[in-house]
Design a protein that fits this description.
It is built from four helices and eight strands. It is α+β, with helices and mostly antiparallel strands. The relative contact order is 0.15.
Length: 156
């Protein structure tokens, strides 16, 4: 534990949906933001507040840091041309849901890419949530990273 602690710069718990860990990196420091976004059935006001809070946290990160946002985003992506720079082409879904749109808008505004749909994997390995009755699988947990530092991520 002490070996790990010497690399930790700080930890911040913003609220029950967002936390941030900043660690020392070899070339740049790394800021990891853990996000638990509202589910699809929540109100637009709740979703907007979540993204406002997330933006507030990102704005406080030094520009030189590698930013990795990861967690249960509840967003489904498809391959719409408008979002392809963000979502890439290895998505599980046939349409983008509202949470996926919000995430794509956030990513575009912050020059980020969804690395969770960036790498080719078998369909059975893309799902991050399975319904209790095993009838549906969703890819709703995602990893976002600064577009100018994508090469730091080797696989998701």
């Amino acid at each position: 534990m002490k070996k790990i602690q010497k690399y930790m710069i700080n930890f911040e718990l913003h609220n029950k949906h967002l936390s941030k860990l900043r660690v020392k990196g070899k070339y740049n420091n790394i800021t990891l933001i853990n996000a638990n976004a509202p589910k699809e059935d929540k109100t637009e006001e709740i979703k907007e507040q979540f993204y406002d809070d997330l933006q507030y946290m990102v704005n406080k990160v030094p520009k030189s840091d590698l930013i990795i946002i990861l967690g249960d985003i509840n967003g489904k992506f498809w391959k719409e041309p408008a979002y392809q720079k963000i979502t890439s082409k290895h998505t599980l879904h046939k349409e983008t849901n509202r949470n996926g749109e919000l995430l794509c808008d956030f990513a575009a505004a912050n020059n980020m890419t969804a690395m969770s749909t960036h790498f080719q994997h078998k369909q059975i390995h893309k799902g991050t949530w399975r319904s209790p009755d095993n009838n549906s699988i969703n890819q709703i947990d995602h990893v976002l990273v600064n577009q100018n530092k994508e090469e730091a991520i080797e696989d998701v």
